[in-house]
Amino acid sequence: MNSKIQILPSLLGADLGDLRGGIRLAEQAGADALHIDIMDPHFVPNMSFGPSVVKLSRETCPNLYRNVHLMMLRPDLYLKPFAEAGAQTIQIHVEANCDVGNTLIRIRELGLRPAIAINPETPVERLKEFLGIVDEVLVMTVHPGFGAQQFIGECLDKVKYIRDRQPQIDVMVDGGVNGETAPLCIQAGVNMLVSGSYLYKQPDMAKAVEAMRHG
Ligand code: DX5
Ligand code: ZN
Fold first, then answer.
1. Catalytic residue (one of 76, 135, 170, 174)
2. How many other CB atoms are found less than 10 A from the CB of residue 58?
3. CA of 211 to the centre of ligand 1 (A)
4. For residue 194, what pLDDT band results from cuts at 50, 70 and 90?
5. Total domain count, the chain
6. Which among 7, 146, 157, 203 is least surrounded, fewest beta carbons within 10 Å?
7. Is the pLDDT of residue 1 over 90?
8. Is residue 1 part of a domain?
């Protein structure tokens, strides 16, 4: 686990008419990585980006780390296109309709960092069998599918379960993270924060990233 708090702007919160500008803004603000949300409408009631946006991110800011969140029913079928596009961490959901353990192993075999994500309504015990084979756990703090939703505080109870079993693992939150909710996440033991609509609407993203990092 990296002891420094990492901040990841979510590209979904950027101006969709200027994705290159949104990617550059994250890099210039000193973000630790860019969070790229990939949705399929069978897993969430929405659609977003595909591998081409991951590629755009690599072309625009090659040194900005690409954290790719697959909100997909069958992430196992799309690992290669995302790896080829430049994904560096791939997060898949424990609720996906595939062999989750095997898919995580394949992510590592592709030379990428495997991570497991969990939705608010899913019991944390479902993570147990995967905690030993991932580098990162993503605790969703909203129901996935849309940016700018309200933070669900009870989801933070999951962090203790994860930390008790894997003290060194990276624990990330995603959804409704802003200047007020970020300190609660850090207090709960989270060390990576995704923030979309909040960071992208700041007049000075660099200042907001620094403030969030220091709780
Ligand atoms: C939600 C996505 C999030 C989203 C967060 O389905 O996984 O990454 O962009 O947006 P905010 O920070 O606006 O809640
Ligand atoms: Zn996300």
1. 174
2. 17
3. 19
4. very high
5. 1
6. 203
7. no
8. no
Supply the pLDDT for residue 215: 79
**Within-domain flag for 168:** yes
In a domain, 119, yes or no: yes
At residue 3 the predicted structure's pLDDT band, cuts being 50, 70 and 90, is: confident
Full residue range of the structural domain in which residue 199 is found: 6-213
Residue type, 201: K
CATH number reported for the structural domain that contains residue 110 in this entry: 3.20.20.70
Q: What mean pLDDT do residues 118-142 have?
A: 98
> How far is 36 from 201, CA to CA, in rounded Å?
17
Q: Is 50 exposed, middle or buried (0-12, 13-18, 19+ CB in 10 A)?
A: middle
- Has residue 130 been placed in a domain? yes
0.90 exceeded by pTM? yes
Cβ burial of 150 (10 Å; 0-12, 13-18, 19+) is exposed
Q: Are 36 and 53 in contact (CB under 8 A)?
A: yes
Query: Alpha-carbon distance 156 to 211, whole Å?
Result: 21
Query: Which entry of 37, 76, 135, 170 is annotated as an active-site residue?
Result: 37
Residues in a beta bridge with 7: 193
174 is catalytic: yes
